[in-house]
Design a protein that fits this description.
Chain lengths: 617, 201
C-alpha cells in the first residue's frame, strides 16, 4: 500500500513537504487531482499518480495548467473535492480560467496549489503568486512548515466549500522540498460521485450575468475576510511592543531569531497563514499595541503595503519597516542569518554575526554546471542542426526543458527563451523582422503544452522558420512524467490514448515535415539541411528516447565505446559534443564505459574513426 | 550564534552519490531517537551532474535552512565540493570529507584544474575546528557495494558524536530505509566508516 494511504491517526512519519500536501489531500477526501508537472511542485503529483492506481482517486497529467484547471473546475462544479497542482509560472497559463472561475465559483472544494520558487532554483522568474489572490479575488493560504502543509489542505477545502470558491494554496520551494516528521490525521472517505446541475444564469458569464457575479464575488470576499480574521492560521505570539508580521518560511526564521537574540519577551509575532484577504481589523489592533513593526516576507511587499495602508486608515504613525527601507530585498530567498540581522538592526539589539571564514586564499574550484547526460539525444540533435546550419546566419529560439541546456557551449544552440511554448510564437516574430535563418527548439511535452497554437499561427500567417521538435518520449526535466505522445501501454498502464506529433504537424498544414533519428548523424544533418533550405514553415521531428529514462526502464542499450590507438588527439569529440562520458588521462582521450550509453554519435564524427564499440570478451 | 541545543549539519554531494538517501536515514534515525529534526534539500539538476545540498537541523529550531558560517558539521561526499561549502563553516565546525575525487567535466576534459588534495585539506584544517578525511570510495568497495559511499560517510559522522544520534538508531534506520538487497553491504559500509573515523582527526 502507498505509504500516504496509511490509516493510522497519530502516526508520525518523515515526509517531504510535497508528500505532506498529498497526504493532506488524502485525509481531506480529495476525489480528483490534475496537474501539469513543474518543479518544485512535481512530487505532489507523482504521489497522486501512484495513489490513484490503488484508490478511488481520479488523477491526470493534463496537457497544460489551463486544461488541468478547467478539468478540476468542472469536477468541483460537480460537487467533488478537487485539487489542481502547478508551479508558479503555471498560474500564468491557468490565469484565464481562475480569473473568471472566481465569478462562477464551485460546489465541491477546489484547491489550486501554486509552488513559488524564490531564488529561482529551477525556474525562469520568481513571481510572487500571492498577487493572484488579490487579482482574482480568491482566498490564499500558505503554510510555514511541513506539518502545516498537510494540515492546511483540509482547512483550505473547508474554506472553499463554505465560500463556494476555489482557494489558492501557495507554497515556496523551501516548503515543497523540506522534510520533517508529520503527525497523520484521520482519512475522510472521498465522496467521488457528483453531477453538474444546470444553472446558466450563474454559470454562463455573459455580460448581464457577469455583472451580478462580480458583485457576488465581492460579497464572498467580505465573508472570506471574516474567516481570515478568525483563522487559526493567523495567530499572534508574545506580548512585546516590537511587532513582527511574517508568513511562510519567514515565520520560522523570525521565531528562531527571536530566541537566538534573546528578545522573545520583547516581540509580538503575527504569523499570517491566511494571506488573502488579510485580516484587516486584527492587523489594525496589532499595530495599535506596537511601537514599531517589521514586516518579514520573501518576494514582493505584499503584506507590507497592506499594513502601511491600514496604519494610514487608523492615523497611526508608528514606524512600519520592511522592503521599502531596505531591511529586506525583493530578490531571492531569505535565510536565518539574514532575518536575524535585520531584526537586530530594526530593534537595535546587540548581535555579532557568525564569522564566515576568510576564503580569499581558496583556489578556484572547478564549476559543476548541469550538463546534458552522456548519450543524451538532444546533444545529437543539436550537433546535427549546428552542422547543417554551418555558414548560415541563424537565431535559435528555444523552450523549457532539459534541452534548454543546449544553449551552453560548445553546442550553443539556444538564443532566446521566454516561457513554455513561446519558441513557436517568437519564431514567427523573428522571421518577420530579421534576415537571419530562424531555427526553434521545442520538446515533445512542451509542444503539446502550448507549442501547437504558435505553429498554427506560423502556417496561417505564412511565416518562415524551421521548428525542431525534440521528441524524447517523456517529460524529462521534471522527473519523467508521461505526456500525450507517450505510449502508456509500454509502461503497462491501460486506459490511455496516444497522440502523434507527426500527424498533428501534418494536419496543421506544414508541408515540409521530416522525422529523424538523431543518432544517425549524417542522415540527420542531411535532413535538417533540407528543412532549413525550405522556404516557409518546416518541421523536423527528432525522435529518440531520453537516455536517462531508458536506463530507468532497463531498456536495452548499445554497447559502450572506447577510444582506440588510432586516436590522433583532434579532440573533436570533446570540443564539439562535450559528452560527460569523456575524460582525459595522460593526455589521452578516454570514455567512461559506465557512463557511455552507446549512442555512437562520437564514433561517427571522429575524423580518424578511432572510437569503436567495446567487443564482448 | 547557535542556540545551546541545536545542531546544524550540511551535507554536500554530487548528483548520484546518495546524499538524499543518507539524509533520509538521518531523519529516520532522529525520529527513532525522539529528537526534533527538520531538513531541506536543493537538487534542481542533480540527475544532470549538479551539486546536491542537504541541510539538517536537529533540536530546538524551526528553520530548515542553514546560513553561511553557521553549520556545526559539514559532511562532504566529494573533496572539491567540501571545499566549495567552506562558506557554511566557522572555526568551530567539524568537517568530514571523502577524499575520492569526482572531477567535473571541465576538469576531465582539461578545461580547468582540480585543486590539490593536500592543499585542500590544509585549507580546511586551518579554517575549521577539525577535519576527518579519508577515501570512502575504497571502503564502499570493501563493503561490497561501490554505491555505499554515503553509508561509509554516515558511519564516520556518527563516530564523531557531532550529531545527537546513536549508531544503533542509525543502523535501525538503514535497515528500515534502504533497499533490502543492500542492507547488509550498507551496514558493513557504515561500520567501516565508523572505524575509519576513529583513528583520524
Amino acid at each position: 500500500m502507498h505509504k500516504l494511504l496509511t490509516e493510522h491517526p497519530g502516526l508520525e512519519m518523515l515526509l517531504l513537504g510535497n508528500e505532506a500536501i498529498a497526504r493532506g489531500a488524502v485525509e481531506a477526501g480529495v476525489a480528483v487531482a490534475t496537474t501539469y508537472p513543474g518543479t518544485p511542485s512535481s512530487e505532489i503529483s507523482t504521489n497522486f499518480f501512484q495513489i490513484s492506481r490503488e484508490s478511488n482517486l481520479y488523477f491526470e497529467y493534463s496537457t497544460n495548467e489551463k486544461v488541468a484547471l478547467e478539468v478540476a473546475a468542472a469536477t468541483a462544479n460537480c460537487g467533488v473535492r478537487s485539487m489542481c497542482v502547478m508551479k508558479h509560472v503555471g498560474m500564468n497559463v491557468a490565469a484565464d480560467v481562475f480569473m473568471t472561475l472566481a465569478y462562477i465559483g464551485v460546489k465541491g472544494g477546489l484547491i489550486i496549489v501554486t509552488a513559488d520558487d524564490p531564488y529561482m532554483f529551477s525556474s525562469q522568474n520568481e513571481q510572487d503568486n500571492r498577487y493572484y489572490g488579490k487579482f482574482s479575488g480568491l482566498p490564499v493560504v500558505e503554510p510555514s512548515s511541513v506539518q502545516e502543509a498537510k494540515d492546511m489542505v483540509a482547512y483550505a477545502f473547508d474554506i472553499s466549500e463554505k465560500l463556494q470558491q476555489p482557494v489558492i494554496f501557495r507554497t515556496t520551494t523551501r516548503i515543497n522540498h523540506s522534510t520533517a516528521p508529520v503527525v497523520f490525521g484521520k482519512i475522510k472517505a472521498a465522496e467521488t460521485s457528483g453531477d453538474i446541475s444546470k444553472d446558466p444564469f450563474n454559470q454562463v458569464p455573459v455580460p448581464a450575468v457577469a455583472r451580478i457575479l462580480h458583485a457576488r464575488l465581492l460579497s464572498k470576499l467580505e465573508t472570506a475576510e471574516n474567516m481570515s480574521e478568525n483563522s487559526e492560521y493567523n495567530f499572534i505570539m508574545g506580548n512585546g511592543a516590537w511587532g513582527i508580521i511574517c508568513n511562510g518560511v519567514s515565520y520560522n526564521y523570525v521565531s528562531d531569531a527571536a530566541k537566538d537574540l534573546n528578545i522573545e519577551h520583547r516581540v509580538k509575532i503575527f504569523r499570517i497563514g491566511f494571506s488573502h484577504p488579510m485580516p484587516r481589523s486584527t492587523i489594525k489592533g496589532f499595530l495599535k499595541e506596537c511601537e514599531k513593526v517589521l514586516v518579514v516576507e520573501e518576494g514582493e511587499p505584499f503584506m507590507e503595503e497592506t499594513v502601511k495602508m491600514l496604519a494610514q486608515e487608523e492615523k497611526l504613525t508608528l514606524p512600519i519597516l520592511g522592503k521599502s527601507q531596505k531591511y529586506f530585498s525583493r530578490l531571492y530567498e531569505f535565510d536565518p542569518a539574514l532575518v536575524r540581522q535585520s531584526m537586530a538592526t530594526c530593534f537595535d539589539v546587540a548581535y555579532t554575526p557568525a564569522k564566515v571564514p576568510d576564503l580569499s586564499d581558496i583556489p578556484e574550484i572547478p564549476e559543476r554546471p548541469p550538463n546534458l547526460c552522456a548519450g543524451c539525444s538532444h546533444r545529437a540533435t543539436f550537433y546535427a542542426v549546428k552542422k547543417a546550419s554551418e555558414g548560415m546566419d541563424t537565431i535559435c529560439p528555444t523552450d523549457i526543458g532539459c534541452y534548454t541546456l543546449g544553449f551552453l557551449p560548445p553546442l550553443a544552440m539556444g538564443d532566446f527563451l521566454i516561457c513554455m511554448g513561446a519558441s513557436a510564437g517568437v519564431s514567427c516574430g523573428f522571421s518577420i523582422k530579421t534576415n537571419k535563418k530562424v531555427i526553434s527548439f521545442i520538446g515533445d511535452s512542451t509542444f503539446f503544452h502550448s507549442g501547437i497554437p504558435g505553429l498554427i499561427n506560423a502556417v496561417y500567417n505564412n511565416h518562415n522558420f524551421t521548428m525542431v521538435i525534440l521528441d524524447n518520449g517523456t517529460t524529462a526535466m521534471t522527473g519523467h512524467q508521461p505526456n500525450p505522445g507517450v505510449d502508456m501501454k509500454k509502461l503497462d498502464i491501460d486506459g490511455y490514448g496516444i497522440v502523434s506529433i507527426e500527424e498533428i504537424v501534418r494536419a496543421v498544414g506544414v508541408s515540409h515535415v521530416t522525422v529523424i533519428r538523431p543518432y544517425r548523424v549524417k542522415k540527420s544533418i542531411h535532413a535538417v539541411k533540407e528543412a532549413l533550405n525550405f522556404k516557409g514553415v518546416s518541421v523536423v521531428i527528432s525522435k529518440e528516447m531520453c537516455t536517462l529514462y531508458a536506463r530507468g526502464l532497463k531498456k536495452a542499450r548499445g554497447k559502450p565505446f572506447f577510444v582506440s590507438d588510432k586516436c590522433k588527439g583532434h579532440k573533436d569529440c570533446i570540443n564539439e559534443l562535450a559528452c560527460p562520458a569523456f575524460f582525459i588521462e595522460d593526455n589521452r582521450v578516454n570514455i567512461d564505459p559506465v557512463m557511455c550509453s552507446g549512442c555512437s554519435v562520437c564514433a561517427q564524427i571522429c575524423p580518424e574513426h578511432a572510437i569503436l564499440p567495446i567487443k564482448d570478451t | 550564534m547557535n542556540t545551546m541545543n541545536t545542531t546544524r549539519l550540511i551535507i554536500v554531494a554530487v548528483g548520484g552519490q546518495g546524499n538524499l538517501l543518507a539524509s533520509r536515514v538521518i531523519g529516520e534515525a532522529a525520529l527513532l531517537s525522539d529528537i526534533d529534526v527538520r531538513m531541506s534539500e536543493i537538487h534542481g539538476m542533480a540527475q544532470r551532474g549538479g551539486v546536491v545540498e542537504s541541510s539538517i537541523v536537529f533540536g530546538d529550531a524551526q528553520s530548515t535552512v542553514i546560513s553561511d558560517g553557521e553549520s556545526d558539521v559539514l559532511l562532504g561526499f566529494e573533496p572539491s565540493e567540501t571545499l566549495r561549502a567552506l562558506n557554511k563553516c566557522n572555526l568551530n565546525t567539524v568537517v568530514i570529507t571523502n577524499l575520492a575525487k569526482l572531477p567535473s567535466f571541465t576538469v576531465t576534459t582539461g578545461k580547468s584544474v582540480y585543486p590539490d588534495l593536500d592543499v585542500l585539506q590544509e585549507l580546511i584544517r586551518k579554517k575549521t575546528a577539525k577535519l576527518i578525511a579519508f577515501d570512502a570510495a575504497s571502503m564502499a568497495i570493501k563493503a561490497g557495494n561501490v554505491l555505499s559511499v554515503n553509508m561509509v560517510l554516515l558511519g564516520a559522522l556518527i563516530q564523531t558524536h557531532t550529531v545527537p544520534l546513536s549508531a544503533e538508531n542509525v543502523k535501525e534506520a538503514i535497515i528500515k530505509r534502504t533497499r533490502k538487497a543492500f542492507v547488509e553491504s550498507n551496514l558493513k559500509a557504515f561500520e567501516l566508516g565508523f572505524s575509519a573515523a576513529q583513528g583520524l582527526g
